[in-house]
Recover the amino acids of this structure.
């Protein structure tokens, strides 16, 4: 058994995990299904009330003309970029070097769509206006991920986002949002989702991050764009005879949680502050701008792990289930705050951080 | 309202629809979920008991080394053909002109994989050994659909299938099975699924035809093949964080119905015989070889439709929800037998066919 499996087990057995909503069990789907009548007709290849109504409500929420439900963001985003490339007749896009399409999709964009990506910015910082100003002329689409997950969920200032959007419109470069965590940033920006989306030509949102659904994504934009996306959805094998297990659960958990994003954001700031007061720890961002952040630790995963396990056992608090090495003597982990954080016994949490601080000073 | 919508409505309101298992409602998913504990952990990106156990059992059932669950057959089959083309370094496959990939997938195979297909046989007949013997040398893979759905679900003699398989192996052409309705043909061939699959290098099966699940597919073959298919599944956007709504329902309805294929086959033969005794009707095949067949009628859809509606209203029997024109004075429809046929009041069914025969003689 690897080291990480032991930490994961201790985390899974902890009474009070700090991150997320709940365990990913079949209960999540059963609960969502209880909200609908058993006689509700399933969707058939993208048609039927159960999918069309949800698409229409999401289009309105995002302030776009139309929206299409996809089984995954991987599929939705490749298709969005393909449509913009075809429209400009140029197989070139631009995105961050740690973009989901670059590091998590086995090069689907290149292997299936033959689209090349210009990587903007360094791996440890956001794309800035001056990066965008350097874009090749033949770039069909710029993808911005809000927040930029792989660097802790950072966000540009809203004014910079507006400037990037204006620049792209002027140059005829389409702007696509990887909004996997769009709902989660509305409290920081103090903007509605529709206001943020108005800066973009196309938007993808996910239903299993802050929303906590089972799986599924929405791709939104003008009707001509979304109609074309349905053709590509069929080609990708994503136009399933029935997607209702995902649309119903996405709808249910969206209604339940989209109003709690401020709470998750406040929770993230609270927890990050506790880490930043702890010896050897710092968070990125220093103050979170969404429900997520990264925790960097200046000891190795091997040194930290037994300390964490004993803290979980002593307090019941579960801080993380994994540690990823950044060097021989440092590591990091990701935290996303959900429903669980509010109900956490704060005295136990304080005790866990006191133990962690003391342990770190001993390492 | 179009003519077909009226017929569809009358069919949906009929007390005794002859085809299928039940209406496609959320109840089907709820029932399947009742069979599992709410605390069962969901799958995560293709890992976890809930998906791995089902894959292992399906691999064993199909007599293959390994199996991977896919959200759709469209995705699974494009990927199978891509793998065989890459292995031979030739972007060429062969299949029937009415193959699913040719007519129902918006040219995904061409648009995403740049694979060209040699079309074998005429649209109204099966691929024969002598067609296969004409195959171009650079064809990487031959796809056979068993049964050939778009021509009524016809099947070659098993000996011809064996000869095609032997020829392909000798020539280094991979043989892939579109087994969307594989379970449904085992009674006619008097073979196990594994015996039939042994003639093929790769096999796709579906869980929402005779099995009656919500959606989903299995792709099976040697481990090297299925491991590569997982990479392409990720690229296609099919490696969802959780596929358990489909794996659980596929598993549940597979266990419930795979043993009823003889019953569905007998039902199809019984119903086809009733049509063939009716004036102006004939079925393809004349005697079904699975649970499905096509019904061809030598009057126009416009003439037949009001007759059907009045028969549904008089007897409660619903024969079909749609009619597709084949000429100005002929039409056809497809029938797939499932759970419903057994419990049908046979006196009502007899009455419906007496009325149909009489009506047809008047047209």
């Amino acid at each position: 058994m690897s080291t990480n499996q032991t930490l994961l087990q201790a985390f899974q057995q902890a009474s009070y995990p700090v991150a997320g909503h709940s365990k990913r069990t079949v209960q999540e789907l059963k609960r969502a299904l209880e909200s609908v009548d058993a006689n509700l007709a399933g969707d058939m290849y993208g048609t039927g009330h159960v999918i069309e109504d949800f698409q229409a409500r999401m289009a309105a929420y995002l302030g776009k003309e139309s929206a299409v439900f996809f089984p995954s963001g991987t599929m939705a985003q490749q298709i969005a970029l393909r449509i913009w490339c075809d429209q400009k007749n140029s197989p070139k896009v631009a995105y961050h070097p740690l973009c989901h399409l670059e590091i998590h999709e086995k090069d689907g964009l290149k292997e299936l769509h033959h689209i090349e990506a210009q990587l903007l910015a360094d791996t440890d910082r956001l794309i800035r206006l001056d990066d965008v100003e350097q874009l090749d002329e033949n770039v069909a689409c710029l993808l911005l991920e809000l927040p930029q997950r792989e660097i802790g969920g950072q966000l540009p200032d809203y004014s910079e986002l507006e400037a990037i959007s204006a620049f792209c419109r002027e140059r005829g470069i389409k702007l696509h949002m990887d909004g996997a965590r769009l709902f989660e940033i509305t409290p920081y920006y103090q903007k509605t989702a529709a206001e943020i989306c108005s800066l973009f030509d196309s938007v993808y949102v996910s239903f299993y991050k802050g929303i906590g659904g089972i799986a599924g994504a929405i791709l939104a934009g003008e009707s001509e764009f979304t109609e074309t996306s349905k053709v590509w959805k069929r080609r990708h094998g994503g136009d399933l005879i029935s997607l209702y297990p995902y649309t119903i659960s996405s709808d249910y958990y969206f209604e339940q949680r989209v109003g709690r994003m401020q709470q998750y954001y406040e929770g993230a700031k609270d927890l990050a502050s506790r880490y930043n007061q702890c010896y050897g720890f710092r968070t990125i961002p220093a103050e979170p701008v969404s429900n997520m952040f990264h925790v960097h630790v200046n000891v190795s995963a091997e040194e930290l792990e037994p300390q964490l396990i004993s803290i979980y056992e002593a307090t019941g608090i579960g801080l993380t289930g994994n540690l990823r090495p950044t060097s021989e003597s440092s590591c990091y982990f990701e935290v996303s705050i959900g429903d669980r954080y509010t109900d956490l016994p704060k005295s136990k949490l304080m005790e866990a951080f006191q133990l962690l601080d003391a342990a770190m000073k001993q390492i």
In short: The first strand of chain A starts at residue 16 and ends at 17. The two ends of chain A are 24 Å apart (CA to CA). The first helix of chain A runs from residue 3 to 13. Residues 3-23+260-362 of chain A form a domain with the Aspartate Aminotransferase, domain 1 fold (CATH 3.90.1150.10).
